[in-house]
């Protein structure tokens, strides 16, 4: 997701969403055969793509299957290649800009559609990043709640509120820490993702009859349902961080090899996501939670037979991953807001006059706003995941890149390419409207009650996340 796009360096954090890439002066690799002595290999680029794209959205795969049924696997198999194509489109679009145009996403929108394109990029990018920051806060709360005693730390607060309070105390100082220090823990993100896939896939061998599940009888499954629209939203959240791709391409030793690296990374993502979705849905069925760490902790073989608390180890890894990614996302939001204000910069790129206290205050305000929104959306986390994927991720990573490419390259394209772009635009617009409308309807109480009555037997309440075993 977009929240996983944070990296070690302040400049890298905002490339190419807010700041110029190394191609700011025209050296963007317009020549597909260009190569440099220094740069990343295709393997390193594919690893970087996986490190950025694979994040907390991975935890919602069984939940997406619960919403859409087994048919959601086919939707995922069709969706990821589309996002791989849009990733190549956004890189191709940057190559169409004039030589000395800054290689930033807002500038791309401005070059393609003037002020309207610039505002669209800023709006949907802010929605995606701010929504992603709220998701990270909620994920951190859930992992802390799993690590705390079931009764919490005292009678004054519920376990969830204790987790929220502790997470706030942990995150506050990290907002002002040098991000280079936090970047050393970025490997924890991939480690936790790999552990998630292994643990869920292992359930097929460790508990093939699901006799270790605390919730009996084994949950039901269904082939397809209207919830597949929300499943697509969750899948989209896990396959989008496209604003980082032009910078990754520019950093390659041979940029012409970028399509191969992109295809390889998306193939790995599709294999991992499909494995996790199918295995998780087979095991938990229509009782799957929006974040599978809760199911692993309370309704799996690991919680009843495993002497080593692997589910707690996983919760700790996911917690560290979210805590280290949130400050970078918060910094991106801060820079995005400052970039639209009429502020002057000096030759070094710093604001003049210095805005250190204003920057700190803005980061704190964003954190407080995200925490307040997380509190209101905590019980509808599933719908929040899907809504963010549909409104933010698809808009930023599919709809806008395709529209900008069509706008800039249309005169030189042949009829088949134009037809393909029109179809992609239609698909993106339809997905944004369907997913956003469905989830907004799902979040309204009367409509939610009506939809719950139509869910398959054994299905979880729409949008909610809490496991009934620990209510």
Automatic annotation (TrEMBL):
Region (Disordered): 21-40
Keyword Membrane: yes
Keyword field: Amino-acid transport, Membrane, Transmembrane, Transmembrane helix, Transport
Compartments it resides in: Membrane
Domain Amino acid transporter transmembrane: 39-414
GO terms of molecular function: L-amino acid transmembrane transporter activity
Stretches of the chain forming a coiled coil according to its record: none
PANTHER family, per the entry: AMINO ACID TRANSPORTER, AMINO ACID TRANSPORTER PROTEIN
Name of the featured protein: Amino acid transporter transmembrane domain-containing protein
Biological source species: Chlorella variabilis (Green alga)
